[in-house]
Amino acid sequence: MTFAHLADAAVSASHSHGTKKTSASPPDHSRHHETKNIDSRTSRDHDASYGASSSPVSPPRSSQGTPRVSLPDTPSARTGPPRSLSFKFSHSSSPSIPLQILVNGRPESGDVLENDLGERGTSYFPLTPRSSSFRGAFELTNSPSLGSPVPDKKGKAKESRFLDRFHDSPTEEGLKTSLGPSSAIVEEEEKQETEARKPMFRHKTMEPARKPTEPPREDLQRSLSHPPRDSKRPGPAAKWSKIRGLLPSVIRPVPSGGAAPHSVVTSHEVNITDELITGGLSTLMLRLWFERDEKRHRRVPVLLHRLRIRISDSLHPLQAHKAVFRIECEYANGAARWVVYRQLRDFISLHAHYALSNAFSSKKDALPEFPRTSLPYFKFLKKESNEGHVRQTDFARLQREALEEYLIKLIRAVMFHPTSNRLSNFLEISALFIALAQSGGAQYKAGFLRIHAEGNGPGFGRKSARWRERKESRWCAVRESYIVVLEEPGELAVWDVFLFDTDFKIIRPTRYYRKGLHLLRPEPEDREFITGANISELQLHPETEIDCLSAMGSIKTRLSRMFRIRNRSSPNLATTADGETQGNGDVSRPAHIRSETMSSGISTSSSRPVTPMLDPSTNLNPLRSSGEAEGGEKRGETEEQEKKRAKGRSDEVSKHTFYVENSQMRLKLFARNERQMLQWITALEKAAATTVFVKNNRFDSFAPIRLNVAAQWLVDGRDYMWNLSRAMLMAQESIYIHDWWLSPELQMRRPNKLKYRLDHLLEKKAKEGVKVHIILYQEVSNRTTPTDSNYAKQRLMSLHPNIMVQRSPSHFQTGTFYWAHHEKICVVDETIAFMGGIDLCFGRWDTPQHIIVDDPELSADKTEIWPGKDYSNPRIQDFHALNKPFDDMYDRTKVPRMPWHDIGMQVVGQPARDLARHFVERWNYLLRMKNHSRHMPFLLPPPEYRPGELIAMGLTGTCEMQICRSAGPWSLGTCNRIEHSIQNAYLKAIELSEHFVYIENQFFITSTVVNDVKIENRIGDALVDRILRAHREGTPWKCCILIPLLPGFPFPIDHNDASAIRIIVECQNRTLFRGPNSIFSRLRKERLNPDDYISVFSLRNWAKMRNGALTTEIVYIHAKICIVDDRLAIIGSANINERSQRGDRDSEIAAVIRDTDMIDGTMAGKPFKVGRFAHSLRMRLMREHLGVDVDAMTEHDYMPQDEIKPENEQEVWDPESEQEHGGRDVTQAKHETPMRNALALASEGIKLEVHAAGDAVALSASKHLKEPVGKVELHKQDLSLQEERMTYSREGEKEPGFASSIVPTLEEEVIQEGLPPASQAESAPLKDKLEHQLDESSVPSEKHTANGEAFGAPALASKDPQTDDEPPHAESGANDADEQEKTAPVTRSMLRKHLASKVGNKIPVPAPHVDPEGFEDPISDAFWKNVWITCAVHNTEIYRKVFHTVPDDLITTWKHYKEFVTHHERFAKPAKDSHSPDPVGRMPSETAYENGPYQKGGVADVAEKSRETFRTNDGSDVSPSRSSNPLDKETRSQKPVHGPEPFTKQERDEMEELLKEVRGHLVVYPSRFLEGEDMAGNFLFPADRMLPIPIYD
After folding, report:
1. First and final CA of the chain: distance in angstroms?
2. CA angle, 1482 then 1486 then 1491, to 5°
3. How far is CA 213 from CA 179, 248, 1421, in A?
4. Do residues 704 and 1219 touch, judged by C-beta distance below 8 A?
5. What confidence tens digit (pLDDT) does each residue in 781-793 have?
6. 822 is known as an active-site residue
7. Catalytic: which of 496, 829, 902, 1574?
8. What pLDDT does 550 receive?
9. Domains of the chain
10. Which of 564, 605, 1361, 1371 would be 1353's cystine partner, CB 3.0–4.6 Å?
11. Which entry of 46, 91, 592, 822 is annotated as an active-site residue?
């Protein structure tokens, strides 16, 4: 099964999971192709709806599998679907997964809403069996139980006290006395459900002998019942008759001869959706939208007749209002099940509120009478009992049944009235709770809270919210990993969301007005607070404590509680995670335990053992073990004294207020009473104990390690966008897109497939009801960053209201002008995600062939593959006029496009939800920061998949995956946290590599110093340390780096406006080759040859334009990947530079993937186990770069072949053991003073402002606040520049020069070693040097400039740059070159002779033979030297010979550069003996020749005029400076008098023949480009040094 099948199954399964029917009929386990949703509509074939075939035709395979690139006659031959993927839109092997999931061999309900088990995994209530089964609004027990009203002679309800009629086992009694036969269907259903959940359900009710006047009853659960009639108005029986007439009769027909139909309202076999659609009840639901309760809140849209409850257990039934009852609820035939804990006083309060509201209401409800006998008048009950005694267990059971009967009647009374909201609140039901019931999440607590945000952040709630709205109490719910606050409980509108993360804490403050003079006492700075982990060892058993209390102590405690007497010497107290009071090392018994065991009105004797069970709603672990009690008796005397002092200070802790804090905000929450506050704290602790986002994760990431993940890499834009368009077509609920740039008119499939255009896809899905949320980077100016996000936003939001777009950042609000949102992610239905380096914008779609021309005249079908603005070359001119997307920016006949090489991936399962959580966190943060004209909702993070759910749906793989990111204060609002987990992953992966590191990146700037600015990311340090360790250990190790030849910015490198290009090239040279901090210099200091361990490459391509003009262009590498040992891969959007790696600058996202499916491989000639994912990706990339036709190769199945191991049997790759697996205590005791709060807020504000100002830029500016403007310390700058032009000798001494001047280039080494060998060369190898291949009379002289400088002469060349016959050492005086370095000048002499020779002569390095199957071992000499390096050198020499391409190792000064430009001018002229006016070739991006794109009237000049002008500080409008510095005048203005001679037609034909020898796109990255100018300090222009380096590094 391919990943394409898996991706289809993922989205289909997610739809089936989210919309599965809740009927009681057994699920269909048969496998099928279609997925049914809740209203039984079949899923549509999206490809068919678009009129496309489900099996597109793939490009024809090459029969020979040649490694060469066969340039197609038309570019459209390479635009079909990816060859290596399958494109079926249905998954034939994926079963229809039922909602019911097996866990440990037992079925699990669709929604587990609370985990009320202790740490031991047992139930809280194992002592008594379940007292009753679930009961609904139409079920009444006919047994005269305690509290069941029976009408007396006066018509009033009277409560029965026949206690002796009850048995200890009501279940057995019910089974014995149930009357009437039941249908086979119901019996089978009850049998299955009873066997599956024996401790939880009892499906038969007790029925004693009925009176003759009672109607006959059957044993179905929803039987017909009528409340007492009222003679003054139509009785409820008449109303129920009308409602019953509205309900559908859609139960199964009774077989002939069977029992008579049951008298029921709705059978369990009726689906709730069918009931609403087919019956008249749907019209009744309209009232839920219009009716409001007394608080003007909308009705909670819940069908209370579908609600079934039971009060299963209770605690402390004889302790008056302290009695706690466990209420189990079930809604919609088990679609949702949850547990609520309520005290007896909560029932009384509920009844009192209803009675009071009913008294003042014109429409009075027939409320049931509260069961007075449920109150614990135990002595009275004992006196009235028949036998003179009653057991406590009997009373507890009867008390629960009475309250259960009361709730059933109350539901019946208010179920269709607005006052039902109060009952819904009592049972913690809200509209969101019902909506999320099938999402797989959990709700731990819900209710009203008042929330206040503290700190200088954006606040809590929308930015547009008024002050009064922020002070209102709102409905809150604690769910699996967040707190959601709703505007109203009856609506789905979210006020805001508080996410749990690794900084999540719960803080209980001290009440200041209770401290008195102690408020002035300073708090010790080194105070440590005891959390739940510490308190578990110090807590005492309640029974032991009660026995130790004397009568005097009790009186003293009560008096001190009455008069608020405090022990002045005892420290502050707070409540821990277990609810216990504590101080500075002081521990006492839990405050709420003491109130339960010694409550007023109940005489508590120390001889009576207290139950070891606590209230589960206010205690994280309500079970007490004897071991804890025994441990408590062995404490020292000092600790006992401290406990005694702490007992009198529990009231200092706030009873209503507590704080929750995460990395983004701090909230102050106000509860109505202490019990509610403890319930909220316990719920938060339960949620924190179960969520993975609170734990510390590997690499300090926000997301944990995920196992058994299905993932697939996608190379280049064609494959990525094809798969993404397919996923979008299958979307049913949501689409999340986060991009640096987005083009609405982007074609996802080509050519001319307009129905797959991005805006058309999003509009189509939005009209189908899919919610589309998009976040775009908001550029500072469209002039500096021409992405025009405003146009994209307006264009997309005008398509449909379901498409919502936010732009970020708000520059002036956050003070962020330099940094950008750089993520590229798309999440579909929170199930399948796409990520990597590919933006959904113009210029990114490309094929593995990386074609550089797209002329319709050269195409057989006259089509354009890259229409309009999509045909781009940022090296010539960046994008402009994006509001005209179909207008070309260049003349396609004269300007080639710049190919785009990129890498992304798609993933199914839990990592997709981690990415969705990251998107939700960013989206909600922006809503707090920005005002919008259109209402945009807050989003909720998706829940975790249930255990076994992905396995049951077949959506698992063999990859271990973790999402990492770079995020900080400005990008995510985390004032005290900067996450740079991507850099941590790079460092650890390189450190633990065994043999090979393969890197492709847009930039490579790390671990160096540039213009006295330190580059702090440590990736370069990790590479150097690993190389030194490999040298010491003698193990083979290599690093292969691919970066673009030049940054993708406009203008040639000598242009006055090319500052960005020069600064980035300078930073990369300082990282790799030049300066004492460069990798080359540090390795040579250790007597190592850098080329033996690390090499740098680039990509380039060529083509023929109209009329046969030859052209070339760099292939821009935009990928951001790192592959280690073919086992681990890092794929994302993060570049290797300061902006991406630090965390507080650009925001980034990346994935760390390790495939556990290990296959046999080879490394350094020895067997080596490799991971399937990383190995196949590395092979795919290297094959593409060497010209192997990857589309024509045999399709490989990259999915696992072996059985996937369970997660608990796998060993996670966590070398530093950073991943936490257990729970973490989040509750803290914290003493806070107003002064401390003020200082903390001020500190947070300062940190936020510093980060907003841009860190290094702001800190650098702060050093010169007191200096006059324009004052520069020139001597300090000169010293730092001089330091950067030093290197190390082999003795470790600093000396002038660059390491790149001494270390031979890869080309020089290949020529010296005579590579490739004859066995691996396609042509005859060179036996001798170049002059031996020619006649003595035709030996060319070396190529020199007009003033005699030798091409390729390194910086500080010995004796004279005109000779270049020795390694550079004249200035340093250290002649420590090895043999290879000494022979390098001879090799450079040969290269200069070849440069001066005719085109028809052979190049020094012949083409190697490329075997498509010979890529297994990347570091063996047979591949690394003889194929990979040799191929790169071979291609480099061809491009140099034909085009004189820039950059190049033979260009070391601006004089050399000028000579190469002169060669470009010859290209621009027609052939000498040709009658065609067309030029021989075109190289518009690498030169500034006459009539070129940068001259007056050229392409760039015309585009520049269409741009906006910007305003200077003095208010004047100016255009970009076009003035030339002296260097520009020298290089551009001075031309030969007669101009360069044009090429002949023969030379042009020889050029084309030579270009056909190119193998792939791989070339050598030059290490000596303009090295001499860099040494002289002339590489950067004076204006370049005035720009802030952090913008570019």
Report:
1. 44
2. 55
3. 16, 28, 100
4. yes
5. 888 888 899 999 9
6. yes
7. 829
8. 42
9. 1-19+27-41 (no CATH), 135-437 (3.30.1520.10), 505-698 (no CATH), 1316-1411+1432-1510+1518-1591 (no CATH)
10. 1361
11. 822
